[in-house]
User: What shape does this take?
Amino acid sequence: MLIRPTAEDLRLIGCNLGRVLVVVAGTGLVPLAWALVAGESAPAASFLVMIGAFGTLGFALMLRPPHTDQLEWSHGMVVVGLTWLIVPALGAIPLVLSGHYGSFIDPYFDAMSGLTTTGLTLIQDLDHLATSLNFWRHLLHFLGGQGIVIAVLSVFAGGGAMTLYYGEARDDRILPSVRSTARFIWLVSAVHAVVGITALGVVGRFVLGFRPGRAVFHSVTIFMAAFDTGGFAPQSTSLAYYHSGVFEAASAVLMVAGALSFGLHFALWRGGRKVGTNLEVRTILATFLGTLLLTMGGLAGAGIYQSLSGLSRQGFFQVLSAHTGTGFATVPTAELASWGGLAFAGMAIAMALGGMGSSTAGGVKSLRVGLTVKALSAQVRQILLPEGAVISTRYSHHGWRQLNPGLVQAVMGVSLLYVALYLLGAGAGLIYQLPLQSALFESVSAGANVGLSVGITEPSMPVFLKLTYLFQMWAGRLEFVAVFSLIGFMFALARGK
Amino acid sequence: MTGMPGASRPSGRSTLWGAISTLILEGLVVAVLAVVGTGIAALMLLLTG
Assistant: This one.
């Protein structure tokens, strides 16, 4: 039997949701300032409307504060689930008003894609989009990659803030308090921002020959898309636009940095002596090399690239883009769609597995993959060894830990949910007679928040498929618990006793 | 992340050197992976004629 939420529950949820919306309203001032400096008056007006919408709703929700500030798990999960539905809806306002989208669902799709750091897009004529609107799309990557709630926690964290932190699919409580952990995450991002934007800007200015303003615009947007493993790009041809190995290399470093867990960043900053034994590090290296081998083998076998430079550059970058969950493309969509057989398998597996836990990447996550393999291996050894033999199930992840049945069950449960999510999107694609390979590729790309496309995601695609991918991006980013909690909460609200 | 062991480690000051060495390490990892990737590509081209 479900218990109907009380008025106090609703006030707690509303007040915390309101705080998040007010903080997001504040971040809207950044693209507004950009639009004013760039002399883009229409986008500036649309940002004002958006800020007003966020602020009005946020303050309205905070009008009736709860008697206590202590969030319980259910409250935290519902706040996170709702945040990740409402922020893209209001964040889509400037995109709706831009005239670059066919219907309301398309800008909502793009805002959700931006916030969940997916990178699939339904925009029309991207190459002529106002720079401030393009900046806003990439800023959504940054907000989502950092975790919107993390942004709020770094400003004010009330009682039970940890529930919000976990709700956004993070569990690396790096420092003793949630606030200090949130601030460490911001520090890592700030350091990478300074170095990344400078490096990309220098390449843009002196290698690609961009004017200073143009170099700044491209370096800032590409930084946010690369470090937050998002995949939006300011031009419709993605990273292929730059035709520059140096630019791709600088982006690749940021993509790798984004796919590392913030816990690993912390360990490295502290000296990182035991990083080599970390199960997550070993797993991601093994799966990356495995999927690279598959993809390269498939591409060479099919004769798609016959030169060493072509095969190594395109194959390496695309597998890296898939495995880190970034979704930058250096090959045209039509060419990517022709990667069949082993190359397709390598790319799809790389996307499905994803980066590290508590990073900005999506997918099943390396630690879950490593723990699953470890658990299966222990089970096989148990069967083969004499009865009563003791099997070691220790693993290293920021210290030695013991694998226990509860953990294995949770890891396998979430991994299975990801498989189900990937199959859901593929099934939806099959309804519209799409080839199985393409339907599966696009579905994994949406569910694992990658953003690579074989051409299915376009404005003319069926509405049901758009809604399916929207759900996949949302559920995949939140790793299911907040999603199920929100569904349960809604059910309790309607049918609870 | 759901289904993961929580990690709570001692606090400490993150040093500037730690940040710089991490950035260098990230660059080195990409460089090594790119070299390995080129090796794999060469091997695959050799094997497939």
Observations:
- Chain B has a mean pLDDT of 78.
